[in-house]
Amino acid sequence: MNKKGISLVGIKDIDTINRIRESYPDCYFELSYLSTPSSLKEILPIVKDRVASIHLLAPVKDYFPNLASFSSYEWSEKAILENAELAIEIGAENLVLHPGYLVDGLVSRDYQTRLTQLKNLNMEEYMLQKEESVAAPSYIKSEKYKKAFKIMVENALKLNKKINNLGLNLTLENLNPRVGYMNLLPEESIYLASLGLNLCIDVGHLFINSIIFGFDCLSQTKLLLDTGRVKTMHLHSNPSHVGYYKDSHLSFDKYMPYYKEIISYASSKGANLILESIEEPERNVGLLFN
């Protein structure tokens, strides 16, 4: 049976968590990659029996894991396995990972520093918009991207075995379209699934990418779910259109016209449904349960 819940990334106070727990007894939570040691110390006693997943890394570190670089793999594996221990302790089954970046080495958690790292890749020719490194369709055809993708797959398969041996699911998330980010197309996630890797499908990211790469978001969401490898999903919406590609993480029903169909189809396939909106947490939870 799939679990329904919400990421703690958009919840700012303990009172809101308690109200959601009381109003929706079947609601689960996802630990956020923005959590701090002090916030987790406060939150875990409240949610530890109802945590479905951990968005790596929690608590937050200075860097993100990066499986697309051999030089960052040792650090990434160690940090992820530490989170795996936490997942076992609190009963979370899924570890959600942004699987790879074109940066050769570790990727900064700080947004502005990370954006500078992406701009320093010297791949302006593959950008639709330079200000936020928005990727053009040609980006995924570049030799640098193809080479990093192969490294990412090799490292993901190695790490996946270790996570599976612990009784957990490593779920690889599809990312939003920035030069330097990886796993952008539905067919890439389907390929990862064909290798036995598990997925976290972020439908908000998929929606933005559908505008740039020219595919139908709803039908591709269903195809991904049909792989049987989607263990969990991130649900939010973005006001994106041609020329505007913001990953805003707004309420799921705000800019996602087929949100009800996604909830229904994903539930029938057994995937967990985790809201990742940064506004209206209680109303968004109601979308899943009412």
From TrEMBL:
It comes from Bullifex porci. This is TIM barrel protein.
